[in-house]
Amino acid sequence: MGKRKLFCEISPLTYQISVKKNIFLRKIKDALSRQRFARIKSYEKLPVMIYKHASLIRRRLGNTDLELQENKAVNLALSAPKVNGILIRPGETFSFWHLIGPDTARHGYKVGLTISNNKPSTGVGGGHCQFTNLIHWMVLHSDLTIVEHHHHDGFDLFPDYKRQIPFGTGTSIVYNYLDYRFRNDTDNVYQLLVYTDGEYL
Asked: Fewer CB within 10 Å, N or C, the chain?
């Protein structure tokens, strides 16, 4: 007898129902929580640079359609300004999805490379895990407290192509119920400055 399917695995419709349910539950949980989310931005740089890193946007993966890489560049260019300059003040929590919002076609996002069931896939907004990978790597070099981090279950999309971030530090995100979050438990104000230059995030 085969393994019983989860409700979300029955059909595309049940999958969408499951996604909507999880988004709704996350919104209720956040509304009821006492977390203070980082929302204020400043484009004036704070006086101390703790860490910086550049992440190559286009990377080779076998015979993957190059259009997916170009679409990822578009997606990252749309999202970077939504995070750039964000101040994380003492006691505040950074939430990737609180700043980015829905990564849907209606908001200009394109179909990019994703990971689904431990294998390469495609989806609107694909490529955002590269963004949270970058943020996670910078946060690991700080005194900030990671409060939500989901792994890619050991799958690596680009295992050998110009790797700079160690394997195992990758992040998995899905709007909005798999988020990347960290909290500022220090007495200092932190800031993320992020942008794309066409080649790097």
From this structure: N
